[in-house]
Each structure stands twice: as C-alpha cells, then as structure tokens.
Amino acid sequence: MTDLMNTRPDIMLSARELFGIDSDLEVPAFSERSDHVPEIDDVYRFNPDVTLAILAGFTRNRRVMVQGLHGTGKSTHIEQVAARLNWPCLRVNLDGHISRLDLVGKDSIVVRDGLQITEFQEGIVPWSLQRPVALIFDEYDAGRPDVMFVIQRILERDGSFTLLDQNRVIHPHPCFRLFATANTLGQGDLSGLYHGTQLLNQAQIDRWNIVAQLDYLSHDEEVKIVLARVPAKADERGRKLIDAMVEVATLTRRGFAAGDLSMLMSPRTVITWAENCEIFRDPALAFRLSFLNKCDEAERPIVAEFYQRCFDQELDESWHHATDGKP
After folding, report:
1. Domain map of the chain by residue range?
2. Class of the 4-213 domain?
3. In this protein, which residues make up the domain named ATPase dynein-related AAA (predicted)?
4. What is the reported pTM?
C-alpha cells in the first residue's frame, strides 16, 4: 500500500482537455493511482460549473459544498473529478450513527507482543488531515450537532486540529482537501422530502468558501445518461422508450415544484426504471414497481396521468389492479 503521507501531486493537467470545460485552469494531479483513488466511470457526465467549483477546491484548497436534490450525482461528481486527478478520496456519510469518537478517535485495546494494551486509534479526521486526501462529508445537513462542531475546527483553510486526549496538535497536509454534499443549505426542509436534515449553524455554513448547486440535467443529457447505464436500450426503439421515460420524470419534477406532488423522479429512479424494464419486459409494470408504488396513494392518479400523456397508454387500469389486490 502506498504511503500517502509522503506523496504529493507531481503533474499538472489541463481542465479544458480533461473535462472539456472552457477554462485555462491547470490542475495539480498525481501521476500514479493509489488504493484510495475512486474508479473512473467512463460514462459519467460532468456539469461544467460544478466541475469548475470542485477543481477550484483541488487547485486552490477551497472548501467546496455541492448542494442539490437527490439523485443529481453530487458525491459521485466529486469522486469522478478526484478519479481523473488520481487524488485519494475518502467519503463519509454523516448519518445518525457517525459519532464524535468516529471522527476524532478513541482508545482501543490492542494486542502487542502477546499483551493487551490500550492504544489511541485515530479517527477519520486526523487520519485524513495528515494525508493528501479529499475528504467528502455526504449528507452534511443530516449531521448531529456534536459531530458538526468537530468538523468546524477544520473548515479554516490552514486550521489545525487538536487531539485533546493526546495533547497533540495536527497541522493539515498541504494537499488535504475538504468537500461536502447536502440536499438543503442548512436552513431545514419544508418540503418533507429530506426528513432528518438539521438546521445548521450559520457560522459554520459561512466557512464554506464555495457552494455549488447541481441541478438535474437537460432532457437530452439525461437520456444519454440512461442509455449509457442501460446499453440494451441503445437501439431506435429503446431510445424512444427512454425519451418518454425522461419526459415522465420531468413532469413529476414540475408537479413537485407546483406543489401537486410530494415526490419526484430523480435520474437515479429513471435508470432503475429502465433496468427494471429489462427484467419485467413491461414499461408500465416496471414503472409501478420503480416509482408509482412509492407515491402517496392520493397522488397516484396524477402520476398515472403523466404516464398516459407520455406513453399514450392508460395506466389507470393497471394502477387500480395494483391497489385493490387483484392480479
């Protein structure tokens, strides 16, 4: 395993050549991959503005938060940029089970020379701080308050981290980078989509240097993504099917924005629907199993109308069958 502590970026890459964005930015990168570098997804499609924001994080050591609705590929976006830079990456989901001790570290009993001794085991934060690692905090707006205050210490660009139990101050590696993804911007969620998100300390939000917003792709781009993920649909008939599926998804998003629906179809759900079409060989059945059955019962007729509009096929009959227990 590569000793990350003694490695640094050793080449410069063109953002224009690597990501096809209109920028003269030269980005530091590693010539060799290590165990912590994500695998490259050749079909991932980059949002130019968000890519530029993430590259600024890597190049200028800016703290970058990517905010957006579910299924837009926020975390994957950061990982795929890191993958192309061969930059080691560590992704941590701030769910309710991540504690302060997980981040900071704790004393553990280990066996040395046949004897049990107590030894301090570094947590996620001190381990990452000492290495050229891009640390990504997923679901940042769902973190517990005690956990968030631990993170606040390292949000300053040159902020040191004090291990009180060890009487030791850790200074960040020059190539340590910090990113986060969030569904909300720390002001709570009134839509009901993201139960469990928290109101965040605004002093902490203020410490993020760059906040990029990742929206859903355009219709044509989303079609290309789904076709890339489900290549069996790459013929003319399949393309027409995927085109109609993406249009259904677009209508659910408009319905959500208008307050008619409490749930919307993300690109992830469209891909799942297309994959399920390969299993069940019936777009209507796959639609019910992939999305319709997740919707509030009172909203299902609206969703069924969207399906009928895009597929020129009634879904009402099969929807009634699905809700009254008939085969």
Report:
1. 4-213, 219-324
2. alpha beta
3. 64-189
4. 0.80
Rg (the chain; Cα; Å): 23
Two structure tokens written together for 164 = 């009180």
Q: Are 170 and 161 in contact (CB under 8 A)?
A: yes
Location of structure tokens 């027409």: 240
pLDDT digits over 235-276, tens only? 999 999 999 999 999 999 999 888 888 888 988 899 999 999
Distances (CA, A) of 111 to 116, 166, 213, 281, 324: 4, 20, 48, 56, 61
114: left (phi over 0), alpha (psi -120 to 50) or beta: left
Report d(CA 93, CA 140) in Å as an integer.
8
Question: In angstroms, rounded to a whole number, what is the distance separating the alpha carbons of residues 132 and 45?
Answer: 26
pLDDT digits (tens, 9 = 90+) for 199-239: 566 667 788 899 999 888 889 999 999 999 999 998 999 99
